[in-house]
Structure to design on (865 residues):
């Protein structure tokens, strides 16, 4: 029996590849297995090769794997494109309809299963995915009944006969494979999982849920891959809480409308990807100078321009930190797991209101769309802290404007919003005095700039775990640094270095701006070699680190649109040692 | 109850003496008092331009934002707190050039915001370039041999985009202007008010006198019915857009806030935003 394996389903886009993977994964998640799924897709709706790779384990997982054990193919292209990933002893389960062939140089075992034929016999070819998931369960040594709950959830509104037909398709697939494979099937028999209830979700849903739990009640946004799931989830959920999502005419509107919502005292977010963030830049500066809290999610994808819209990249770091003209206070948080995407997004609203500035929640495509088993999220860990803002505060009567931009010790002034009596003041993107009235006075300018630019100085005291570290070694041969989704992949390779007798520490930067220099410097000082692993061509994180920490760094870069495989990180780090 | 004086602040506008925008400021102050507003329940959001400064010259919550974006900000404010009265304002360049997409979509969306445009047919703040409201042949610093682009017919465009309240007025006619703004504030849904507001410094063609000579007041047209969409468009076309008064109003169309599924009846800002543990756990089960 084994405790982990990798399974992949592939075919033409629009053929139900996604739902095949979903049903397989949800059923296994409910058995208590840990899963990690990554979808390969292109920017079109029908046609084009697509696949969904799912790793299954009895232990927690944060990454895809290098290799593959089982490939489920709905067309020959799937075999041709993916067969090289298969391990020795790997298996291809393919629809007999297209007369599948495994290339001569591959020693994979092929099972041609009549997916389409069985489905047609049961009434409709649509059920061919069910036959495929049935066959998959058999090879893992699981009963086809593991799917019943999921199938009922999907089809019960169409009547029990539809449920039974689908279950029959699954059963027939399982039986066919058992017969064809005989004892061979046993080689992939999985150890029993713990049966615990856990969540199975993509990063975007964790972000959306984090926003909801974090008190966001309004979201203007414009659709874009790979961020749309955030607005789609909230479009469904916000009405239950009195709130709303507006699909705006563009991201300039989305961002400025979010500024309007926050200005009026409602936690408002917007979410987009590179092209949208580029359009928001002027507005981000407005939020900076007017000290309006603003949470923006950027799910990075391949740039520049339209770039690689459905592919992984981490190339927006510099523009997120420095983007907008002039100098403003801004926070950039980069969660590195689905779970962190939830907690960090909820916390982003607290930071935005406590420091009254834009906060960017930076994720990437692999994290945003990678689907992962997550321990149930903890309600008690979500706090709501609104800083110096209380809509119900009674303000003393005054005969002039309220000092919304009062110079204070910590740089943060009391925030009042429209509707509050005795709080009237002016807000402008023009440099202004304490009451918000335009002012070009040089002393006032310096005071207001300093107020804004120093108010984040306290952030480091209050931000928990600005760097995720796994640093068991006092002195290390190698320190690997990454951000966002590379975390799991780096974790995956650490044991390989240990096997080689190397002492390796790992740091994943979670607060990329303002940079946690004090936390990183000691780790760097105690490492013989430091390698920064990132999905971009110019080493943006490495450059940010060099600006903030005294160090010498090496780069491992990848910008072909795909996430790192563990073996790539391993080999390239080894070459640098 | 507040009077128009309560909407005055102690800031001296930096507009040129004689600029049409002074009247718009006064009309907003009067209209706000006339409809019974308190200053703290009014938010005036403006864009960038000479006209954009207006939000700083009214004693209310005021937000002077960025060029062309007063409308999305104003809509965000209204969504966050529907109990407020929200006015958006700016110049013709602000609203019909850089901010044109927002204008059309604010009309379509129909959130209850009153949008007041100070239309001087030119760019004032940047010292005299052509605007989408400049006539063909109009000579400016950026069109020295005369504009070769057509003038935008903004009222017709608004009506054809589904606007529920479309009106026009003139800075010289404070009485009509005040009344139109009152009606716009009272209208449930988006209202567009275009005000001929002469730039005395850079526009030597579209002057107070020029507007006086060319404007037709709708009051003077016998049988004019602002509920009649076809008549509204025909009248605009007959007069080359130079009419003032309430051009078109559709009182039946519900505002966006009224139509949004599940939307809070009172200002969202007043809600408790913490989630109960049971509610939260319920949300999690959907992912299990
Ligand atoms: C993004 C951006 N582009 C250009 C400008 C420069 N600018 C400021 S106001 C303005 C146009 C002013 O004309 P209008 O909107 O008609 O207002 P007016 O000054 O006539 O009242 C321009 C181009 C700017 N502030 N922001
Ligand atoms: S330049 Fe024109 S628009 Fe600007 S303040 Fe002077 S008169 Fe008014």
């Amino acid at each position: 029996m084994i405790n982990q394996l990798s399974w992949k389903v592939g075919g033409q886009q629009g053929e139900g590849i996604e739902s095949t993977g979903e049903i397989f994964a949800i059923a296994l998640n409910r058995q208590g297995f840990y899963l990690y799924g990554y979808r390969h897709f292109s920017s079109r709706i029908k046609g084009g090769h697509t696949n969904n790779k799912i790793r299954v384990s009895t232990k927690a997982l944060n990454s895809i794997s290098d290799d593959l054990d089982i490939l489920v193919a709905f067309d020959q292209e799937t075999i041709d494109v993916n067969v090289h990933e298969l391990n020795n002893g790997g298996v291809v389960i393919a629809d007999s309809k297209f007369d599948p062939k495994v290339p001569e140089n591959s020693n994979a075992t092929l099972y041609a299963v009549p997916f389409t034929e069985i489905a047609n016999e049961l009434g409709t070819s649509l059920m061919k995915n069910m036959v495929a998931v049935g066959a998959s369960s058999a090879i893992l040594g699981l009963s086809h009944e593991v799917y019943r709950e999921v199938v009922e959830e999907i089809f019960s509104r169409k009547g029990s006969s539809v449920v039974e037909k689908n279950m029959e398709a699954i059963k027939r697939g399982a039986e066919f494979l058992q017969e064809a494979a005989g004892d061979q099937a046993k080689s992939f028999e999985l150890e029993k999982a713990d049966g615990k209830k856990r969540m199975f979700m993509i990063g975007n849903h964790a972000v959306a849920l984090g926003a909801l739990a974090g008190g966001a009640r309004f979201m203007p946004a414009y659709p874009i891959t790979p961020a749309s799931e955030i607005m789609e989830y909230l479009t469904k959920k916000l009405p239950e809480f009195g709130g709303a999502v507006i699909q705006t005419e563009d991201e300039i509107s989305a961002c400025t409308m979010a500024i309007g919502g926050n200005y009026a005292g409602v936690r408002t977010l917007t979410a987009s990807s590179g092209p949208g963030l580029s359009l928001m830049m002027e507005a981000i500066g407005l939020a900076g100078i007017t000290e309006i809290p603003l949470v923006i999610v950027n799910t990075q994808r391949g740039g520049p321009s339209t770039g690689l819209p459905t592919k992984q990249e981490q190339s927006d770091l510099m523009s997120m930190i420095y983007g907008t003209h002039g100098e403003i206070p801004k926070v950039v948080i980069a969660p590195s797991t689905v779970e962190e995407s939830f907690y960090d997004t909820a916390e982003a609203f607290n930071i935005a209101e406590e420091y009254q500035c834009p906060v960017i929640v930076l994720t990437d495509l692999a994290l945003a769309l990678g689907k992962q088993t997550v321990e149930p999220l903890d309600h008690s860990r979500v706090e709501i802290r609104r800083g110096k803002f209380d809509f119900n505060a009674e303000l003393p009567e005054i005969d002039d404007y309220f000092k919304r931009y009062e110079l204070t010790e910590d740089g943060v002034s009391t925030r009042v919003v429209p509707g509050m009596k005795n709080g009237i003041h002016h807000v402008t993107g023009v440099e202004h005095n304490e009451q918000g009235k335009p002012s070009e006075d040089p002393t006032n300018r310096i005071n207001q700039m300093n107020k804004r630019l120093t108010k984040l100085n306290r952030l480091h005291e209050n931000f928990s775990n600005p760097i995720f570290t796994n640093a068991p070694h006092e002195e290390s041969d190698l320190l690997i640094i990454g951000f966002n989704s590379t975390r799991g992949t780096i974790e995956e390779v650490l044991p390989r270095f240990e096997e080689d007798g190397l002492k390796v520490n790992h740091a994943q930067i979670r607060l990329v701006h303002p940079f946690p220099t004090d936390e990183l410097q000691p780790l760097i000082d105690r490492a013989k070699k430091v390698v920064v692993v990132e999905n971009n061509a110019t080493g943006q994180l490495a450059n940010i680190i060099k600006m903030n920490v005294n160090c010498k760094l090496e780069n491992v870069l990848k910008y072909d649109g795909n996430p790192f495989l563990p073996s790539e990180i391993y080999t390239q780090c080894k070459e640098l040692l | 109850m507040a009077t128009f004086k309560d909407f005055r602040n102690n800031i001296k506008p930096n507009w040129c003496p004689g600029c049409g925008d002074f009247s718009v400021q006064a009309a907003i102050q009067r209209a706000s008092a006339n409809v019974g507003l308190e200053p703290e329940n009014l938010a005036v959001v403006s864009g960038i331009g000479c006209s954009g400064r207006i939000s700083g010259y009214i004693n209310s919550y005021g937000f002077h934002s960025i060029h062309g974006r007063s409308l999305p900000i104003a809509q965000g404010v209204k969504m966050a707190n529907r109990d407020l009265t929200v006015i958006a304002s700016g110049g013709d360049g602000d609203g019909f050039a850089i901010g044109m997409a927002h204008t059309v979509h604010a009309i379509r969306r129909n959130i209850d915001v009153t949008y007041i445009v100070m239309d001087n047919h030119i760019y004032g703040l940047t010292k005299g370039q052509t605007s989408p409201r400049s006539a063909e042949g109009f000579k400016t610093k950026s069109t020295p041999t005369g504009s070769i682009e057509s003038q935008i017919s903004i009222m017709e465009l608004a009506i054809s985009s589904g606007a529920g309240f479309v009106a026009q007025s003139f800075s010289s006619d404070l009485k009509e202007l005040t009344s139109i703004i009152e009606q716009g504030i009272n209208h449930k849904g988006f209202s567009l008010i275009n005000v001929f507001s002469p730039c005395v410094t850079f526009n030597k063609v579209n002057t107070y006198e020029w507007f006086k000579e060319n404007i037709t007041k709708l009051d003077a047209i016998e049988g004019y019915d602002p509920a009649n969409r076809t008549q509204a468009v025909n009248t605009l076309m007959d007069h080359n857009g130079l009419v003032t008064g309430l051009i078109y109003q559709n009182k039946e169309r519900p505002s966006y806030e009224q139509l949004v599924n599940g939307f809070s009846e009172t200002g969202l800002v007043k809600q408790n935003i913490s989630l109960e543990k049971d509610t939260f756990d319920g949300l999690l089960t959907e992912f299990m």
